Amino acid sequence: MKIDYSDAPKNNILCVDMKAFYASIELVKRGLNPLENHLAVVGDKKRKGSVILAASTALKKKYGIHTGSRLFEIPKKDEIIIAEANMQLYLDISMKITEIYNSFLPLEAIHIYSIDEAWLNLNGTEKKFGDSLTTAKKIKQKIWDDYSLLCSMAVAPNMFLAKVAMDIEGKKTGLCKWDYSDVKDKLWPIKLSQCWGIGSKTEKKLNAIGVFKLGELAKLPLSYLEKKFGIIGNQLYYHAWGIDYSKLEGHYQDHRHNIGRGITLLRDYNDLEEIKTVIFNLAEEVAKRARHNNLRAKTIKLSLSFSYQEVKKGFSRQLTHKRATNFSQDIFRAALVLLQKNYQGEKVRKITLTLGNFSNNNYRQLNLFGNDDRQIKINEIRDKLEKQFGHDALFYARNIQKGSIKAKIDNTIGGHKK
C-alpha cells in the first residue's frame, strides 16, 4: 500500500522544546550548568507528597526522578537541590524566548504550544538566515547565548511530523530533520504509546485490533479507520503516513474564547457561605482579567468538582445575559444563581469560574436602573491601586471571611507559587 505525497504539505516547520525548562532556569539562576547539576522543582517543599514539576537532565539520568514523581522519592543527597516553583519567572523567560523567535520570524509564523514548546514556520527565511537547519541552529544558539538554556529541535514538512521527529530523535541529538522519505524507516517503527496525538483510549482500541506501531496503522484502509473511529480515523490514517494538513496559525491575534480561574481547595468545603466566599474570590479575579483585556462577558460558567467521597463528580453550568459585564458583583450574582439551582450540599474540592461570549469593553449597553459609571470608576481606582501597591491595597471585606482563598489566588499561577 502506497500513498501519493504530491499534494502533501511541503513546509519547513520547526518544533522547539526547551530542555527541562523549569529546572534549567533554576540552575542557571544559581550559576550552575543545567546539564551537569541535579535539581528538582516542586510545588511545595514542605509537603513530602508534593509533585515534581520538573527535573534536571542529570537528575533524571542518575536517580531516575522524573516529572510526576513525588518529593519523598528523591534521595537525600547533598548534590540534589530542591527548588520551589517560581511560575512568574518561568512565564517571563518563556516570553523572552518568544521574543527571540520573533527576531527571526513574524508573529504569524509562531505557534506557541505551551510554556516551553512551540512550532515555527521557517518558510521564507532562507535568504536572510540560510536553509532551515541553519536557521534552527541560529535560533538555538541565540537562546543559549542570552539565557544559557538548551532546547531540542526538529524540522519537517508539517506540524505532526516535526513534533514526532523532535520527540523521537531531536531530544537525543539536539536537532534533526525528517522528510516524507523518512516515514518508513523512522516513523513506522514508533510504538503508538510514543506517538504524539494518540491518547491511551485510542491506543487500547488499536491494540485490540492488533495495531501496536505506526507502520501497522498505516497498513489499515482509510475507509476502515473512518468507519471505526470517525473523523479521528481520518487523522490516524494520514498521521501514520506522516501527513498533517493542519495550518500553523500564529497567536498574535489573541481571540479569547474564555477567561477562567479554578482553584483546588486544601480541604473539602460544604459550608454554603464558605463556598460563596470562594466564588466571590474567583469572580474578583476573572473580572479583573476581563478588564485588563478590555473585554466584557455575557456568559458566566460555574463548575464544581466534588470530593472523592461523593457519589457525583460535580457539575458545570452556565447562563448568558443580554448585557455584557466585567463587574465582579455582576459575575458573582450570576454564579450564585447557578449555585442555588445546582448545588445540594455536597463536599466540594474544586471550584472554577469562567467568562465567555465577549464583547469589546468600548461598547456598553446602558443600564437604566444602575449606576455603571460609578462602578467603572471604582474598578479603575482599585485596579490602579493594586498595580501600584499590590493585591492588598484595597479589597472587599468578603475577601477575608472564613474560607477565603484570595491569598492563594494572588500568589499562585497555574496552582503554583509565583
Mind explaining what this structure looks like?
- Residues about 365-370 have low confidence and may be disordered.
- This protein has 4 domains: about 15-20 and about 90-180, Reverse transcriptase/Diguanylate cyclase domain (Alpha-Beta Plaits, 2-Layer Sandwich), CATH 3.30.70; about 20-85, MutS, DNA mismatch repair protein, domain I, CATH 3.40.1170.60; about 185-240, DNA polymerase, domain 1 (Orthogonal Bundle); about 260-415, Dna Ligase, domain 1, CATH 3.30.1490.100.
- The strands form 4 sheets. It has a 5-stranded mixed β-sheet.
- The protein is globular.
- The chain has about 425 residues and is α+β, with helices and mostly antiparallel strands.
- It has helices spanning about 20-30, 55-65, 85-105, 125-130, 130-145, 160-175, 185, 200-210, 215-220, 220-230, 230-240, 270-290, 330-340, 370-390, 405-410, and strands spanning about 15-20, 40, 50-55, 80-85, 110-115, 115-120, 150-155, 175, 260-270, 295-305, 315-325, 350-360, 410-415, 415.
Write the layout of secondary structure elements.
Blueprint lengths: L12 E6 L2 H9 L8 E5 L9 E4 L1 H7 L16 E5 L2 H18 L5 E5 L2 E5 L4 H4 L2 H16 L3 E6 L2 H15 L1 E3 L5 H5 L12 H9 L5 H5 L3 H8 L1 H10 L17 E12 L2 H21 L2 E12 L7 E12 L2 H15 L5 E13 L11 H18 L16 H5 L1 E2 L2 E2 L1
Parallel strand pairs: 2-4, 7-8
Antiparallel strand pairs: 1-6, 1-7, 2-3, 5-6, 9-12, 10-11, 10-12, 13-14
